[in-house]
Amino acid sequence: MLIVGSGSVGKRHARNLASLGCRISCVDPRAERREELAAETPVVGSHPTIEAALAAGGLDGVVIGSPTAFHPAQTIAALDAGLPVLLEKPVAKTAAEARTIYDAQKRTGVPVLLGYTWRWWPPLLQVRSRLNEGTIGKLRHVQFHMSAHLADWHPWEPYQEFFMASAAQGGGALLDESHWIDLMTWFFGTPAELSGRVEKISDLDIETDDNVDALAMYPDGLRVSLHLDLYGRPHEKYIRFIGEGGSLFWSADPNRITIGKQSGQVWEEETFTCERNDMFVAVAREFLDVVAGRSKPSCTLADGIKVMDLIEAIRTSSAEGCTVQTGKADA
């Protein structure tokens, strides 16, 4: 397996795939990053560019874990070489760039698994099941909330040097934390209307947005609010679902689901013991099945294009101060 991008997520994918029996090669323009990865996970190849790695041959699949700006060229190169790809989110910086990858995938027929990893998180799979069972009745409002100070993400390096601080590399809250937009579409499909603000409001020394607030309108009366920020402490990730028959609350920390159906604070609680890396291992296992032809990707480029279109809608709404029609909602 070729790991393209030897930073934090690349090292994680390398460790996980090696633990599942894969031999690892890596790509990064920075020799010190390749050396760091190799110190953690033995490698059979180390290359400064994906072109050099592809020319060396001996590959069965490619993991693209580089900054977002490099996704299109690197993914298309892998697809043209006939190699299945595990692509980290988001697909690209823009919807137009994302469609170039989609077109290459259709042209080559080579599979791409998109790494919106929260889809593999056991508590959220349980939430989806409970919602589909109608546990809290007809949904009316859902609140997605992600707040985490950027300086805490990679404490081993200055956050100003992290790609998240760079507009050119595709950093920022809206793109990188599009996990939560993907989860919205995974749960509910595409909304009919979107409005939002994308801003830089904190004192963080970055070029990118650090605050996103959006409202999605569904034609059946469901309203979904989304808040993403890069300045909050303590870190919080949660989703609150309010239905006509009760409320359901999921949080990442503590790792649990609570359900309430009474007027008072009476909650049914389910606590989970899974760890964050478990969802990355689950993605790696699925990718190996995709490479072997045993399964098709469960999170596809088409899913990623939907997310990119909604990102563009939020950008347009923020720039023009308007509500954007996003088309007929999915069934």
TrEMBL record:
SUPFAM superfamilies: Glyceraldehyde-3-phosphate dehydrogenase-like, C-terminal domain (SSF55347), NAD(P)-binding Rossmann-fold domains (SSF51735)
InterPro entries: Gfo/Idh/MocA-like_OxRdtase_N (IPR000683), Gfo/Idh/MocA_Oxidoreductases (IPR051450), GFO_IDH_MocA-like_dom (IPR055170), NAD(P)-bd_dom_sf (IPR036291)
One MF term in the entry's GO annotations: nucleotide binding
Domain Gfo/Idh/MocA-like oxidoreductase N-terminal: residue ranges: 2-116
Pfam families: GFO_IDH_MocA, GFO_IDH_MocA_C3
Gene3D superfamilies on file: Dihydrodipicolinate Reductase, domain 2, NAD(P)-binding Rossmann-like Domain
Domain GFO/IDH/MocA-like oxidoreductase as annotated: residue spans: 125-248
Identification of the protein by name: Dehydrogenase
